[in-house]
Amino acid sequence: MVVGLAVGKRQSRPWIVSDELWSLIEPLLPGPGPKLVESRPRVPDRQALCGILFVLHTGIQWEYLPQELGCGSGMTCWRRLAAWNEAGVWDGLYLVLLKKLRVAKKLDWSRAVIDSSHVRAARRGPKAGPARSTAHGRAASTTSSPTARASRSQSC
Fold this sequence. Notes:
Blueprint: H1 19-25, H2 45-58, H3 74-86, H4 89-103
Helix pairs in contact: 2-3
Organism: Streptomyces graminofaciens
InterPro entries: IS402-like_dom, Transposase_6_like
Region (Disordered): 120-156
């Protein structure tokens, strides 16, 4: 099963996309836009996805994506990620994988959590009053104390 890769056996290179996972992702990807300027050939989507996953897995900056991986430049992968995000690829993939898990009876709803920050409020809360000003009074010092015992500036 596709999702089983993340659970149980650890994959040595998790940024490599399996054929099974690619078969689910590929139909969701938008076609390439028209080339405005003739330049280098377009990096294949699967290789760009591997570059995206490498950056997300390792946490490196996009510009430091190793060229030896054959995923294109970090900027290419970043642009592809942004375009796919705008096209709704990730939402579609989530629904496809959720359906696949549901059919395989692999969902365990006993551990589900709903975060209230994602539930829209029915009505607005009370209107906030004006913010208090701190300009008139002097704030208490957090680095020194007026008592002799706590002060570091006085000698014993």
